[in-house]
């Protein structure tokens, strides 16, 4: 029977020390799975399920067996991790040998050596929901005390994951805005070069850039970059 290697309070403290500017969303998911495995008693493996719409996937896992059990549920569109994700509830499967809600999945899990599981719903952010899935090689592994501890960890993990998701989205948006600004800057430079050489209006300069873009099957930004680079090269000669 697997014993925890970390106290639950230490696991929460460790999760709280994670800096969002130093870790990716994928790494945060993996850290949650690892800390859950280390702190929840009688745990063999842990996964984190993510669901957007009707599409589910495993965002992190501590072992291939648990990932495979998750993926079978995604293929069948049913199972405890999906139900927990949809409802936000905790779903316990105390004994795979007597499980009647998902008998085919339970039989597959039991054949692989997993005898019980616990799925804790994680409301994450916006249209994304998920579940923390804990698998054990012992039947009736998770008593009421263990479930309470796991739910406490899940609640804390959900907040950390939601913050990481928001930070990741904000960072992506900021990077996209910076890229858009760089694109606009080089296009404006190219327009200025064309206006100076052809004595035309800004609209006419952009129309010429667009035509070259279409004729050469390149993006307007790429055409602009080439024109600016050529102009810079001429000034250096």
Radius of gyration: 26 Å
Low-confidence stretches: none
**Order of secondary-structure elements:** HHEEHHEHEEHHH
Instruction: List the total number of helices.
Output: 8
The CATH architecture of the largest domain can be named as 2-Layer Sandwich
**How many beta-strand runs?**
5
What's the helical proportion of residues? 55-70%
Could you describe the 3D structure shown?
By secondary structure, the protein is an alpha+beta fold. It folds into two domains: 8-172, Beta-Lactamase (2-Layer Sandwich), CATH 3.30.450.40; 177-236, Arc Repressor Mutant, subunit A (Orthogonal Bundle). Helices cover 59% and strands 16% of the residues. It contains eight helices and five strands; from the N terminus they run ααββααβαββααα. It has helices at residues 8-16, 25-39, 64-76, 80-87, 103-111, 144-198, 202-216, 220-236; strands at residues 45-52, 55-61, 90-93, 116-125, 128-136. A five-stranded antiparallel sheet has the order 2-1-5-4-3, sandwiched between helices. β4 and β5 form a beta hairpin. The longest helix has 55 residues, at 144-198. The radius of gyration is 26 Å and the shape is elongated. The termini are far apart.
């Amino acid at each position: 029977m697997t014993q925890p290697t970390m106290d639950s309070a230490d696991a929460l403290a460790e999760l709280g020390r994670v800096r969002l500017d130093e870790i990716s969303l994928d790494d945060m998911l993996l850290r949650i799975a690892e800390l859950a495995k280390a702190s929840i008693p009688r745990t063999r493996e842990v996964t984190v399920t993510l669901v957007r719409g009707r599409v589910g996937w495993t965002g992190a896992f501590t072992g291939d067996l648990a990932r495979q059990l998750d993926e079978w549920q995604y293929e069948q569109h049913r199972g405890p991790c999906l139900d927990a994700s949809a409802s936000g509830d905790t779903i316990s499967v105390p004994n795979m040998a007597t499980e009647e809600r998902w008998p085919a999945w339970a039989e597959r899990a039991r054949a692989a050596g997993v005898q019980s599981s616990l799925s804790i719903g994680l409301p994450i952010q916006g249209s994304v929901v998920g579940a923390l899935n804990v698998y054990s090689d012992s039947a009736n592994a998770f008593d009421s005390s263990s479930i309470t501890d796991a739910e406490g960890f899940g609640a804390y993990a959900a907040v950390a994951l939601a913050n990481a998701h928001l930070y990741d989205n904000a960072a992506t948006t900021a990077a996209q805005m910076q890229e858009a600004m760089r694109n606009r800057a080089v296009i404006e430079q190219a327009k200025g070069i064309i206006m100076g050489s052809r004595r035309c209006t800004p609209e006419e300069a952009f129309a010429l850039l667009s035509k070259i873009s279409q004729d050469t099957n390149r993006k307007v930004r790429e055409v602009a970059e080439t024109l600016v680079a050529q102009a810079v090269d001429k000034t250096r000669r």
